[in-house]
Design a protein that fits this description.
The chain has 383 residues and is α/β, with parallel strands linked by helices. It has helices at 8-16, 35-48, 64-68, 93-99, 122-131, 149-156, 166-170, 182-190, 200-205, 210-236, 260-274, 295-310, 323-333, 348-353, 358-364, and strands at residues 23-28, 53-57, 74-75, 79-83, 86-90, 103-106, 135-141, 174-178, 248-253, 278-284, 314-319, 336-343, 369-374. The strands form three sheets. The chain has a six-stranded parallel β-sheet with strand order 3-2-6-7-1-8, with helices on both faces. The chain has a five-stranded parallel β-sheet with strand order 11-10-9-12-13, with helices on both faces. Strands 4-5 form a two-stranded antiparallel ribbon.
C-alpha cells in the first residue's frame, strides 16, 4: 500500500519549526514515474503560501510537462566547470548558500559532481545545505540506494555505480513514494515522455521490461514503508517492538575480505527490517597491525569502514589473537542476535585447517542466528 500523500503544508509545518534544515525525499521506482514533476508541483503550492522557494537544480530531460512547471520559479544559475575540454554544468552550492532560501529543490541526488567541486556527490551538497538551516526537497530512484545495490543487480542485471548511503535517507523528515503502475510507465516510455525516441528501443529491451519494473516498484514500496515505520517510531519516542531473540545485527569484517560491500549491505538491510542498531566488527590480529598489514589491504579496510558508517553502522575494532572468540564475546555482551559473515571459497579441508573462522562460529554460536553470505553471488568489483 502506498503511504498517504502529504500536503505541502505538512512539510511547511516542519519548515517553520526547524533550526537545521528539514529534508523531504521523493523516491521512485524508475525514471519517468513523476518525481521531479511532484517536486515542482509542491514548490508552486509552497510559493503560493508565501514560502521562499528556489530551484537549486532540476533536470527536465526534455520532458515538456516538467519544463512547463519551472515557469514562475526562481532558478539558481548553474556553475560551469571546464574539465578535459568539456564544459560541465553543476549546481552552484555557494550561490545557493548565499541566497539562503527557505526551501531548495534539488534533483538527482545520487549524481557525481564534476572534478573540482567541493563535494564528490550531490547528496553531500545537500547535507551542507541542511547544516546551513536551508530546507531541501529532493528526489532519487530506488536503484541508487546503497544497501540495495546487490538486490538491484539481481533484479535488473545492471550494476548501479552512483549510490546514496542509507544514512542520508534515514535522516529524512518525510519520505514519499511516487508510484506508477508498470503498464502506465511503459506507456509513458513508448510515447516518448521518458526518453528521447532513439533511446526507447534499447530501454524496452534492457531496463524497462515488465518484470524488472515490477521488481523495482516492489522495492520502492517496501523501502518507503520501512522509512515511514521508522519515522513513526521516532515520533513516538520508542523503538518498535522486537521478537525475543531478534537482537542487534553484527557484521564480521576481516582486514581484506574479497567482497565486503555485500556483507555490509546485507547487515544494513537486516538491521533495517528489524528496526535495530547494527555493528561492523573488525578483529585485528597480531599479524594485522597497522605496521604489518600491506598497503592494499589497509586501503580496502579504510574504504569499507567508511562505507559501513555511511550505511549507519557503528564500527568497532577489537584486538585479539583469537578472532572467533572475540566476535562471539562481543556479540554476547552487546545484545547481538544476528551475526553476518562471508563464506570462504576455499576447499572445506583448507577451511578446517586454515584461517577460516566460519566452521568454529557454526559450532559455538549458540542461540545467535548466523548468516553466511556467498561471495560469488555478490557481483562486486574490487570491494
Amino acid at each position: 500500500m502506498t503511504p498517504e500523500r502529504k500536503r505541502p503544508e505538512d512539510f511547511l509545518e516542519l519548515v517553520e519549526r526547524a533550526k537545521r534544515g528539514r529534508l523531504k525525499v521523493y523516491v521512485g521506482s524508475a525514471a519517468g514515474v513523476g518525481k521531479t514533476y511532484r517536486m515542482l508541483e509542491e514548490a508552486h503550492a509552497l510559493r503560493k503560501r508565501g514560502v521562499d522557494v528556489v530551484v537549486g537544480i532540476v533536470e527536465t530531460h526534455g520532458r515538456p510537462e516538467t519544463a512547463a512547471l519551472l515557469e514562475g520559479l526562481e532558478i539558481v544559475a548553474r556553475r560551469r566547470i571546464e574539465y578535459r575540454g568539456v564544459t560541465i554544468e553543476e549546481m552552484d552550492l555557494d550561490v545557493l548558500l548565499r541566497r539562503r532560501p527557505q526551501v531548495a529543490l534539488i534533483d538527482e541526488i545520487a549524481h557525481t559532481n564534476a572534478p573540482g567541486s567541493r563535494h564528490a556527490k550531490r547528496y553531500q551538497d545537500v547535507s551542507e545545505i541542511l547544516d546551513a538551516g536551508i530546507n531541501v526537497i529532493c528526489a532519487f530512484n530506488i536503484q541508487h540506494l546503497e544497501s540495495l545495490n546487490d538486490m538491484i543487480q539481481r533484479v535488473t542485471g545492471v550494476k548501479v555505480r552512483e549510490t546514496v548511503p542509507d544514512t542520508f535517507l534515514k535522516q529524512a523528515d518525510q519520505v514519499v513514494n511516487v508510484d506508477l503502475a508498470v503498464e502506465d510507465l511503459l506507456e509513458r516510455l513508448r510515447s516518448g515522455r521518458v526518453y528521447p525516441e532513439d533511446k526507447i528501443p534499447w530501454a524496452l529491451q534492457h531496463f524497462f521490461t515488465p518484470e524488472k519494473l515490477a521488481g523495482l516498484r516492489e522495492l520502492a514500496l517496501r523501502e518507503v514503508a520501512e522509512s515511514v515505520d521508522r519515522s513513526l517510531g521516532a515520533a513516538r519516542g520508542a523503538a518498535p517492538p522486537q521478537r525475543a531473540g531478534d537482537g542487534r545485527v553484527m557484521v564480521a569484517m576481516s582486514s581484506h575480505p574479497p567482497r565486503a560491500a555485500a556483507l555490509l549491505r546485507k547487515g544494513s538491510r537486516l538491521a533495517g527490517r528489524l528496526s535495530t542498531d547494527w555493528y561492523v566488527v573488525y578483529v585485528e590480529t597480531p599479524q594485522e597491525t597497522p605496521l604489518r598489514i600491506d598497503s592494499e589491504a589497509q586501503r580496502h579496510l579504510l574504504g569499507n569502514v567508511e562505507r559501513a558508517r555511511e550505511l549507519g553502522a557503528q564500527v568497532v575494532r577489537l584486538r585479539s589473537s583469537d578472532p572467533a572468540k572475540a566476535l562471539l564475546d562481543f556479540a554476547r555482551t552487546h545484545g547481538v542476535g544476528h551475526l553476518v559473515v562471508g563464506r570462504s571459497e576455499r576447499p572445506w579441508w583448507r577451511q578446517l585447517f586454515g584461517r577460516s573462522i566460519v566452521p568454529r562460529l557454526l559450532r559455538e554460536c549458540g542461540d545467535l542466528d548466523l548468516h553466511i553470505v556467498s561471495a560469488r553471488a555478490e557481483g562486486e568489483e574490487g570491494a
